[in-house]
């Protein structure tokens, strides 16, 4: 069920970039990321401007929202994205706890 906000996942950050709408303001709106899990599943994740806390480690993410992607903007081939909430918690894990690849790729048709 997608309406939950109590998900718990263990992931590695692959890519991260600032999303800026230059038509409105030069300020960052959010931080977009591509994360990867132990099964090499890639997922798009978003952290809003007021919640940005940069990280590059293997992490556990708790209490986030999974929602359907609306529109054509899809950094990975998925119908869903993760959105960090005010209650989202991030915990760093030692690198030797689990093997999560640093990168992944998807073939485009």
TrEMBL record:
InterPro entries: NA-bd_OB-fold (IPR012340), RFA1B/D_OB_1st (IPR003871)
Top-level taxon: Eukaryota
Domain Replication protein A 70 kDa DNA-binding subunit B/D first OB fold: 6-92
Name of this chain's protein: Putative ovule protein
Species whose genome carries this gene: Solanum chacoense
Transmembrane annotation, as ranges: none
